[in-house]
Amino acid sequence: MSDLDLLHISIADQMLYGFSAGQLKVRLPVSTARNGAGERNGSGCTPRGLHQVRAKIGAGLPLAAVLRGRRWTGEVWSPQLHEQFPGRDWILTRILWLSGLEAGRNRLGEVDTFRRYIYLHGTPDTEPMGQPLSHGCIRLRNADMLALFDRVPAHCRVRIDEAPCPQWAANRFSNKE
Is the CA virtual torsion 32, 24, 171, 50 positive or negative? Predict the structure, then answer.
């Protein structure tokens, strides 16, 4: 059931906050770019500003399904598979492909989020959350990505910001609402 209408990603908090009609409904740990915030193509940075979910990829695939070029390889991640491909940037479970909405900031030209292939996606559970370690994307635990995927409609707004969000970080609620 798609019930979220805004995702807010705080780079400072390394946290995703999901909202429905202005109410905080989801708080999930993430991992953004090791290189910090930035929009330029080839920077390896997480782009800031207002985006939308342009495509949802992977519906119906198994948990930890391995995606390359936005297609399932037929593999499911395991420690043994990881050992076979030690340097691979694992994109697992599902993809929410982002497209920038601010021309000149994160849309068109050298700063186009969509053409940079910036996603929200699952990652091996052996990878730490709460630390910036990605190549630009926003990584989530596989179970979190699976649960979030169905709650996010196509064209859902996604704001990526550097600022901390202490008012949301401290908010008490159940992620199951």
Answer: positive
